[in-house]
Amino acid sequence: MLAMTNNNAVLILALFCSLCFVHGQERKCEKIKIPMCQNIGYNLTSMPNMFNHDSQEEAALEVHQFWPLVEIKCSPDLKFFLCSMYAPMCQLNFQEEVPPCRSICERARKGCAPLMQQYGFSWPERMKCENFPILGGDQICMGRNDTSENSTTSPLPSTITSSGNYVEQPRVNCCSCRAPFVSVKDRKVTASLRDVSTGGVPGCVMACNKTYFSEDQESFASFWIGLWAVLCFISTLVTSLTFLIDMERFRYPERPIIFLSFCYCFVAIGYIIRFVAGYKVVACDSDGLMRYETSGPAACTIVFLLIYFFGMASSLWWVILSFTWFLSAGMKWSTEAITNYSQYFHVAAWLIPAVQTIAVLAMSTVDGDPVSGICYVGNHNLRSLIVFVVVPLLVYLVFGTSFLIAGFYSLIRIREVLRTQADKLIKTDKLEKLMIRIGVFSVLYTVPATIVVACYFYEFVNREHWERSIVCAECVSKYEVQPDHSVFIIKYFMALVVGITSGFWIWSGKTIESWKKFCHRIFGARRGKRDTAAKSLTAQATV
């Protein structure tokens, strides 16, 4: 066994002359290029290592996961232990791989494992100390002189965060603005734009028409959103017109469905305006950057007003719809009694979203959505996203669902009471049909609304990691956090599909009859006038 000491390090090698004959492929030594593993007592390594990394670049990506622990010196042996595995020592006259000794592993684990557990990590399974040979045993290994038990550990930097299965390296001089983001430090831009921080990099903003996704994914997203916006507009327009030609047919508690559909009609118009005006006109400024924290210009503001105001109003009409169902089924209110309070429903449904919209515009928190190209709130500011989007939608969804469940429970109780009376079997059948319609429509709204909230929450939780995986690409591990394109596709689909399904309530033979009567009134009246005029002319000619 050969021992080598450098910087308090003793490299123990047992070289046996009988093993000098090389079996299989010869190991080729190369200079260590991994920054963390330079100046550790040897300067040559060979690949693949014990983790089957074929190159130093691949090994470096993984070993740098542990850089924060090395930096804070939780164990003086950690750096040597890691490098002995990821960049094992290579000697020209010895062809076997030399693993670290168990004592090195145990000292590193003793110093760092408690700190890792404190932040939700466990000691890696493939680095179990039992897997390594004992110093002085039958198998050769690399070791170091025992370090002091009284070595101190620096506090953990606040920049160490966990996401998935990796630890981010402290971002010191390794994060910079990279595509799709651009730096505005040297540009003549507003002070608010200079204050924008992306992934911890100040003055870094997203370029116009650039996203986290490929061009094919961007093209599909545009087609997808445009398709459902048009379908939503057609469906809601038909629903709204059906209400206008036969208002008496839609009474409370079902009437809020019409206003909900009316709101989605304007939401769809907002998306259609975006496609007619163009991505750059709506979502980008004149400098070729995405709009950040603005309240204009006109195209951006109009799209924002249509989508945000009427989107929030539709959520409130859902709450009112559930509430009126509860009053009717649970509290036994008549249609006339509910109608008497309709003005209050309108005040709540239009005033609350108006206050929200005014607050957003007053705080200039409107920005461009890089995926859809619309102007909305919270596309770049996480605080705005949670305050103006996630929380209101979640509150409306909870209230609406609560009233719906309470009303549905009351309908079930009424059904059971009526079933005990044989002479009212017909009424029970009608009630069951009503329950089925309410249940189907509830699913058609609640499920998409819940998914939309979940998608926004997914974006809120992960967006900062997406940004850091780009701007700090040189100092994070290979396990990068990338946004899931399908989540965004689902979000926009679910945000528009409710407008389509809101027509469920009018999909019946009564709607066809209403349109027939309307057409008869319009065209029948014209035909009657023509017949009268013809008879008058005939009479004059006869005279």
Automatic annotation (TrEMBL):
<feature type="domain" description="G-protein coupled receptors family 2 profile 2">
    <location>
        <begin position="221"/>
        <end position="514"/>
    </location>
</feature>
<comment type="similarity">
    <text>Belongs to the G-protein coupled receptor Fz/Smo family.</text>
</comment>
<feature type="disulfide bond">
    <location>
        <begin position="105"/>
        <end position="129"/>
    </location>
</feature>
<keyword id="KW-0732">Signal</keyword>
<keyword id="KW-0217">Developmental protein</keyword>
<protein>
    <submittedName>
        <fullName>Frizzled-5</fullName>
    </submittedName>
</protein>
<dbReference type="GO" id="GO:0042813">
    <property type="term" value="F:Wnt receptor activity"/>
</dbReference>
<feature type="transmembrane region" description="Helical">
    <location>
        <begin position="347"/>
        <end position="366"/>
    </location>
</feature>
<dbReference type="GO" id="GO:0004930">
    <property type="term" value="F:G protein-coupled receptor activity"/>
</dbReference>
<dbReference type="GO" id="GO:0017147">
    <property type="term" value="F:Wnt-protein binding"/>
</dbReference>
<dbReference type="GO" id="GO:0005886">
    <property type="term" value="C:plasma membrane"/>
</dbReference>
<keyword id="KW-0807">Transducer</keyword>
<dbReference type="Pfam" id="PF01392">
    <property type="entry name" value="Fz"/>
</dbReference>
<feature type="signal peptide">
    <location>
        <begin position="1"/>
        <end position="24"/>
    </location>
</feature>
<feature type="transmembrane region" description="Helical">
    <location>
        <begin position="223"/>
        <end position="245"/>
    </location>
</feature>
<feature type="domain" description="FZ">
    <location>
        <begin position="24"/>
        <end position="144"/>
    </location>
</feature>
<dbReference type="GO" id="GO:0035567">
    <property type="term" value="P:non-canonical Wnt signaling pathway"/>
</dbReference>
<dbReference type="InterPro" id="IPR020067">
    <property type="entry name" value="Frizzled_dom"/>
</dbReference>
<dbReference type="InterPro" id="IPR015526">
    <property type="entry name" value="Frizzled/SFRP"/>
</dbReference>
<feature type="transmembrane region" description="Helical">
    <location>
        <begin position="302"/>
        <end position="327"/>
    </location>
</feature>
<feature type="disulfide bond">
    <location>
        <begin position="29"/>
        <end position="90"/>
    </location>
</feature>
<keyword id="KW-0812">Transmembrane</keyword>
<feature type="transmembrane region" description="Helical">
    <location>
        <begin position="257"/>
        <end position="282"/>
    </location>
</feature>
<feature type="disulfide bond">
    <location>
        <begin position="37"/>
        <end position="83"/>
    </location>
</feature>
<keyword id="KW-0297">G-protein coupled receptor</keyword>
<keyword id="KW-0879">Wnt signaling pathway</keyword>
<dbReference type="InterPro" id="IPR017981">
    <property type="entry name" value="GPCR_2-like_7TM"/>
</dbReference>
<keyword id="KW-0472">Membrane</keyword>
<feature type="disulfide bond">
    <location>
        <begin position="74"/>
        <end position="112"/>
    </location>
</feature>
<feature type="transmembrane region" description="Helical">
    <location>
        <begin position="434"/>
        <end position="459"/>
    </location>
</feature>
<keyword id="KW-1133">Transmembrane helix</keyword>
<feature type="transmembrane region" description="Helical">
    <location>
        <begin position="488"/>
        <end position="507"/>
    </location>
</feature>
<dbReference type="InterPro" id="IPR000539">
    <property type="entry name" value="Frizzled/Smoothened_7TM"/>
</dbReference>
<dbReference type="GO" id="GO:0060070">
    <property type="term" value="P:canonical Wnt signaling pathway"/>
</dbReference>
<keyword id="KW-1003">Cell membrane</keyword>
<keyword id="KW-1015">Disulfide bond</keyword>
<keyword id="KW-0675">Receptor</keyword>
<dbReference type="InterPro" id="IPR036790">
    <property type="entry name" value="Frizzled_dom_sf"/>
</dbReference>
<dbReference type="Pfam" id="PF01534">
    <property type="entry name" value="Frizzled"/>
</dbReference>
<feature type="transmembrane region" description="Helical">
    <location>
        <begin position="386"/>
        <end position="412"/>
    </location>
</feature>
